Amino acid sequence: MCGIVGYTGKGDVIDVILKGLTNLEYRGYDSAGIALRDENKIKIYKALGKLINLKNELETNKSEIKNPTSGIGHIRWATHGNPSVINAHPHTCTCGKLAVVHNGIIENYKELREILISKGCKFKSQTDTEVIAHLIADEYANTKNLEAAVRNAVKKLQGAYAICLIHEDEPDIIVGARKHAPMLVGVGEGENFIASDTTALIEYTKRAIYLEDNEIAVISKDKIKITDIEGIEQVKKIEVLPWEPVALSKLGYKHYMLKEINEQPDVIRNVLNGKISDIQNPVILNEVSLNKDILKNLNKIQIIACGTSLHAAMAGKFLMEEFAGISVEVEASSEYIYKRTTTDSSTLVIGVSQSGETADTITAIKQAKSKNAHILIITNRPDSNMARLADSLIPLNAGIEVSVAATKSYIAQLISFYLLAIHLAEIKDSLPKSYLQNLKHEMIQLPSKIESILSDTSVIQACARKYSSYKNFIYIARGINLATALEGALKLKEISYINATGYPAGELKHGPIAMLDETMPVLSILIPGGITYEKVLSNCEEAKARNAKLIALTSSEDENINNIFDDVIKLPKVSEILSPVLACVPLQLLSYYIAEFLGKDVDQPRNLAKSVTVE
Ligand code: G6P
Description:
24 strands, Glutamine Phosphoribosylpyrophosphate, subunit 1, domain 1, binds 6-O-phosphono-alpha-D-glucopyranose, Rossmann fold, globular, alpha/beta
């Protein structure tokens, strides 16, 4: 969500922090700021809007910046207080000697603020973060030791935080602390780092130490000390990060989103790699320790997720019920948290998350864990907090996804659910072997079919141009492609800000049909040979009778389809059950090109963040 970078060492402090923030900018981008320790003073620069504005601000003031030896930087996604220079981080205490950046939400900030005001603290912003600065300064007045002051202060905080701070009187140390928000220390030579995500470090070091909740890190250029909340030093493992800097390059594409859409054939190959060695044999899903005994006692599966991952979960539910006959519930994480659930020790709870850091899903998973459910996490970030809660883990191996709108992680989640559903069916012996063999055979061909979609996008681009001025869309489908329709509509909303609704095709006549006229295009997903084809076609005819413009996404070879639909986007031949893997791709491209034609900020759409670490 917000991004944090702290740096001390031999390098160019401003350059290192700005590069780190650039690599985090996809996570939040309404304002940015930096605090530098320069000539034994703390100097703070902030700017509203994207990071480029902070870069310009630093350029304007470069004559007053001499040789900073350490600093902290932040990009913000506003929670408390609107995006403004005053509310941008870093925040300071009344004397201005301390600067702090923060990711998370301090729930008791109002009470703390009152107490601190009564002690004479002067507040400038509307943020919850500013209380942290005043609180630590208050503790520092007693302890004269920054580490101890942080330790005392964080004990008084309720909520979630990853904080990073510097103090004028403590030369060249940076202190970091975390609870329910990610933070790690990058280990260098003659330099060290603190960051909220590995992508900030990728260009400088591959060695990192992950902080646990309630741990405090104190770094200088050649020392790292990590203690628990009571000050007891912790022996921590240095992990080697898997990413290469090239993972953050656009590789010649105009946007990360287009690059990531085009990476999807290889992503599928990666996910399938080693899982289907021979279609005659069972899928190899060693990560999932679900044997016959566990399955015998399993009475249901619950899947918890948010956003795009929730749509993958819906497809997953369909597959596991269809293939293995197990009852599956899908719940938005934020809903699961606040209701009486039926989760118990005979429930398999699957958490799905690209980032592995989504606060709603983490809270929901913790709740399920406390009820002794078996926890399976499907994530693109095996190094994430969510992954650490897993009893079983399916890593997506999709590579870093930078564009805020999820694409390649969605397709990797879908493929993971196919593998999991087949795995369950094979353990339970619930499907004929020939059916499973055909399915695996077809799955292996999916990457080349997507390559054929990507090789000619002219029809999709023409559609995007034609429909980019429409203000409302309905996407309809039935069965397993209902998830595809919901995801297609979400993609359009996210990056073009056009109102798009995904709906079960059969439900159109029970309400939404009232909205239909020539201003409302209806996009439908029709897969011939599937059990829903004829019915969806009838629903399209009903829409046509109300003058709606009709767009078909179909693998139909039937010439007649051109007479019914205004526009037809063709899919390669595919079975209905596997069609979501192909159908999502033209829908991603349609959204992409519409947003492009409208001149929207495709990779960093307004108001969104890639990783939402607040509930
Ligand atoms: C944010 C992003 C969405 C994403 C959702 C869930 O809202 O903007 O693109 O689908 O979070 O994220 P996760 O990392 O848990 O999949």
